[in-house]
Amino acid sequence: MWRLPLKLVMTGAVLVGTVSPSVAELVVFSGGHVLKVAGFEVIGEVLDLRLSSGGALRVSLSAVERIVDDEIEAPAEAADIEMAEIPVRIGFEEGQPVPDTPYGHLIFAAARREELNPALVAAMVRAESAFDPGAVSVKGARGLMQLMPATARRFGVVTGDLLEPERNLEAGTRYLSWLTKKFPDDLPRILAAYNAGEANVIRYGGVPPFRETRGYIKRIYGTLGLDAVR
Hints:
The chain is of the alpha+beta class. The chain has 9 helices and 6 strands; from the N terminus they run H-E-E-E-E-E-E-H-H-H-H-H-H-H-H.
């Protein structure tokens, strides 16, 4: 496990008292650093962390890219996620229809602008928020594409705009487009990076073994009518 730099701990965090317990988590900070914690609680724009070593830490939510459940699939359970070549386009092409979903026209416009398959974006929105623009997760992710404030800021959208469908889709599709360039023609890694962070995909050399991430990919594949195969 990578260690959180001391500089970030000292300048971006304040020691606090007790944090409500939760399952073990991996907190991915801006810049890719990862901290394993025993639990967390989001309070407004602050994230309280219960450290695995004891004690607690308070950080600004704006410094956090994502929080991933630290639950690893056993090899036998993970076997069916070894994915073959995927028969679905990642990029946009003329003639692709507007998704027959809530916010379908906004999804289509954002996907076309970022040269993405609208059906793929719609499947991700379904998996992320079930098309609820006001969705806010216990981890602090917000809006249709469930973006953390730090991720949205990377792609030009401020925290206060994340519950606006058009702005949320703008940031989410920009991020997704960026991932398609980082992992060309590799849908499993693209989706894994959106869920668990590109640093974790690079670290594991592919789809990480996190149960949450693999389940996320399977849900999107199911929406697209695809199978995860060995």
